[in-house]
Every structure is written in C-alpha cells, then in structure tokens.
From TrEMBL:
Signal peptide: none annotated. Belongs to the polysaccharide synthase family. One of its GO terms (cellular component) is plasma membrane. It comes from Deinococcus metalli. InterPro entries: Poly_Biosynth_Transport (IPR050833). Keywords: Cell membrane, Membrane, Transmembrane, Transmembrane helix. This is O-antigen/teichoic acid export membrane protein.
Length: 417
C-alpha cells in the first residue's frame, strides 16, 4: 500500500512539473481566487461601479495587447545576443504606446464615459503591457513555474486589495487603483525573475535599429491584427453601454467576469505553452501539427464544459451572486458557443505569427471586425433586443473561429493558406 502511495506521489510530482500542467495550474488557482471573491465584491460594490471598472479593464486589456508593438513575440524568438536589446525595445515601445493611450483616453473620455477615470488608464496599461513582456522572457526560458506563481500572486493581490478598498471606498476608482497597485507589486517581483534570464544590460542604437528592421512585420502586421483581435474580444461591454441600459450591460459584464474571462485565461495559459513548444527545434516531420492537435484536445474539453454549463447557468449565477443576477444566465446561454470557439482557437492562433503568417492573421481579424460591426450597425438600425444582438454576435464569432482554425491547420501542415 505504501509503495502504491509513494508511486502515485512521484507520478503526481512528475505531472506537476510538466509545462502545460504548471501553466494551467497557476491560471486555475489565480482565477479560482477571483471567482471565489466575486460574490463578496458583488456585495461590496454597486453594479455601476463594477460595470465601470470592467469597462476600463477591457479598454486597458485592448491597449496592453499591442503596447509593445508585439515585440513580446520578438523577445521569444530573439537570438541570445539580441535578447537584452529586444527586451529594452519592447519596454520602450510600451512606454511610448502608454503615452499615446493616455492622450486617447483623455480625448475620448466623454464617449467612453471616462470623465472621472481616464487618468487611471496610463498606469493600468503600463503594468499590463510590462507583464506581457516579462512573461515573454520567462516563456523563452521555459520558466513555467515562475509564470504560474506570478499569476497566482497577481490574483491574490488584486482580490486582497479590492476587498480592502471596498470597505473604505466602494467605487470604480477604488477597484481600479487596487488592481493597478496589485499588478505593479507582482510585476516588480516578476522583473527580478526575468532579469536573471535576460540581463538588463544596455545595447547600442545600432542593435535597436537592426532589431526593428528584423521584426518590422510584427509592427506592421501582427500589431494591427492583435489590436483588432483584442477589440473584438474585450470591447463588447463598451459597445453595448452606448445603446442599452446599464443593468443589461451589467449582466453581460458579470457573465464575462464570472465564466468567460477565467476560462479564456486558462486557454491563454495553454497557448503560451503551445507557443513555447513550437519554438523548440525538432527534426521530426509533422512535429508542429502534432503539437497543434494535442493542444486542441485539451482546449476542446474545456470548450465542451463551457457549452455544458448552459442549462445550469441561471441557477449558478443566482447561487453565486444572488437572485438579482439570474438574468445573467440567459446572457451566458446566448454567448456560450462563441466563448467556446474563442477558447478553442485563440490559444493556437499564435502559430501564424511564429510562422510568419502575420498578413493572414490581419486579413482574418479585419474580416471578423467588419462582420461584427455589421451586426452592431444592424442592431442599432432595427433597435433589436439585447438577446438578439448577442445571438448574432455569437454566430459571427463561431463561424470566424472555425475559418481561422482551418487556416492554422493548413499552415502547420506545411500548406500556404
């Protein structure tokens, strides 16, 4: 009996050291903390405060996804001698983009309802984008343990800060400030870990110029594609707030927070491991495609779980947040298939950038954006009910991701899309 237990313990230890397990475990623990704290936060903060917080969060997620001009990808594939200069270039891009984002947030503070919150955007965007660059360094070095522990630390710090602030200043600004401070603390720790790998020594201007020339496709193609993709993924609450009551937007926001975002972040963790595995040199024919199929199996199981939750979603929201949030279950039912398709395809879509498919990614993102814009324009013209708009949005998202999945499959098989 003791031998069996010891063997099981050793097997579990080996499994926990696998990159995929470490990445998913860190994300699951972090998002688990967030999910457990959501009922408490829903009672500390008003729906209006939570809605405004998520709107600013979504805006900053969009900005942070492109703040480095996708040089986080350049960091992962840089030659060893170019790594310090590439990291410095990525952080420099982030600082410049944050300045532009600040000006944009101020200019759009009226239409985006940021009159009292626009000044929080720069710090929020900076810490998010900096975290992406640092994570790229850790991914390059296969330091999945550090990435996993950082995810847990970020979630724990955010929850602790927001619960603490909620007793003193239960406002949207309080939620955002607590989030920014928590992320900044975690980023400082992660910078030390990444510095041990990259080395923060300065590089000459010639090195920077060569790196920009070498990775200019990331700037001209991958960055616009990432911006379009992030806008489609995160901008839904902002778009809906223009035409629908705050209470309905709140249901959509809470659906994304409680169920959509945590599972999407699990998919992001799987995608980071997939990217790292693709970067490993291999002489085996079909190696990349086999990795692709393997990751799809993992993601497919999570996507099925998303759809399977539809019948119990109203009861789940009621149990977690109270009877007032039961209508969010109907919103979840309308969005679930789109979430499932996003979860299945987004994590493996980075393969297009790694295999120089930036133009293909840009064309796909542009086409999807046009379709979604048509959905919202048609809804505004017809004054369509919210549930009809969400259903049409889900159909567009699902079909778009099926097309992208086929393109990625062809690229990894060696054919040109």
């Amino acid at each position: 009996m003791s031998h069996a237990v010891a063997h099981a313990g050793r097997a579990l230890g080996r499994h926990a050291r696998r990159p995929l397990t470490q990445a998913v475990l860190g994300t699951v623990l972090g998002q688990g903390l967030t999910l457990l704290a959501t009922p408490l936060l829903a009672r500390l903060y008003s729906p209006a405060a939570i809605g405004a917080y998520v709107a600013v969060l979504s805006l900053c997620l969009i900005l942070a996804s492109v703040a480095s001009l996708k040089f986080d990808v350049a960091v992962q594939r840089a030659a060893p001698q170019d790594l310090p200069a590439t990291v410095a270039a990525a952080l420099g891009n982030t600082a410049a983009a944050t300045a532009v984002a600040t000006a944009a947030a101020w200019a759009l503070r009226g239409p985006l309802h940021l009159e009292q919150l626009w000044w929080l955007v720069p710090g929020y965007c900076m810490v998010m984008a900096g975290q992406q660059v640092v994570t790229a360094v850790l991914l390059r070095e296969q330091d999945h343990r550090a990435i996993s522990s950082n995810r847990v630390a970020v979630a724990a710090l955010i929850v602790a800060a927001q619960v603490g602030v909620g007793h003193a200043a239960p406002t949207a600004a309080g939620l955002i400030v607590a989030d920014v401070v928590a992320r900044a603390l975690a980023l400082g720790f992660a910078l030390r870990q990444a510095g041990a790998h990259a080395g923060w020594r300065p590089a000459g201007l010639g090195s920077y110029a060569r790196i920009f020339r070498q990775d200019r496709a990331l700037v001209w193609f991958a960055t616009p594609a990432a911006l379009l993709n992030s806008a489609v993924v995160y901008a839904l609450p902002v778009l809906l707030s223009v035409a629908y009551p705050a209470s309905q937007v709140g249901y959509v926001t809470m659906t994304q927070k409680v169920l959509g975002l945590p599972l999407a972040l699990v998919g992001q963790a799987v995608g980071q491991v997939f990217t790292a595995q693709l970067l490993r040199p291999s002489a085996e024919p079909g190696h990349a495609h086999r990795l692709f199929v393997r990751q799809l199996r993992v993601l497919g199981a999570l996507a099925v779980l998303l759809v399977a939750l539809i019948p119990v979603a109203p009861a789940l929201f009621t149990a977690l947040l109270g009877p007032a949030w039961a209508p969010a279950g109907q919103v979840y039912a309308a969005l679930a298939c789109g979430y499932a398709a996003q979860l299945l395809v987004n994590p493996v879509s980075q393969a297009l950038n790694l295999y120089r498919g930036e133009r293909t990614q840009l064309l796909w993102d542009g086409g999807r954006l046009l379709l979604i814009a048509a959905v919202f324009a048609g809804a505004a013209w017809m004054h369509a009910p919210l549930m009809h708009v969400l259903t049409a949005y889900t159909v567009v998202m699902t079909v778009s991701y099926v097309v992208l999945l086929r393109v990625i499959d062809r690229v990894l098989r060696g054919a040109r899309p």
